Amino acid sequence: MIDELIDYGHMDAATIAEWKDGVSEAWADLLELIETRAQMLSASQELHKFFSDCKEVAGHIEEKHKQLPEVSVGDSSSTFTLQRMLSSFEHDIQVLVTQVLARSLSIFQTLGLTFTEKTEVLVPMLARE
Predict the structure, then answer these.
(1) Taxonomically, which superkingdom (predicted)?
(2) To the nearest 10°, the Cα dihedral for 69, 72, 76, 81?
(3) Number of domains observed in the structure of the chain
(4) Which of 23, 34, 61, 83 has a 20 to 30 Å separation from 2 between CA atoms?
């Protein structure tokens, strides 16, 4: 209908055409904003899942830590058993570290972090190993 008014030479055709262009631009801006917000929402959801996964991993670590026996000074009869348990604990923690690093890289990619930003986060994490 708007195009018909413009095409048939309505006396305000120039004004109508300007308004039409303005509405079209506003609509395009709105669609772009919707897409940007959808991407931000998706990234926020990923970040929320990441922190939830981190809490879960922390719970696993705490659970593994509680399974370690109390060590008393001078109790050498169970040294081998304790060493085996600590080795198993270390292995389990290393598996969790690997999972956390993989998940971290995934969330970094989702958030679009640069190599420098990733390095600033990962280097201290790796140094703690």
Answers:
(1) Eukaryota
(2) 0
(3) 1
(4) 34
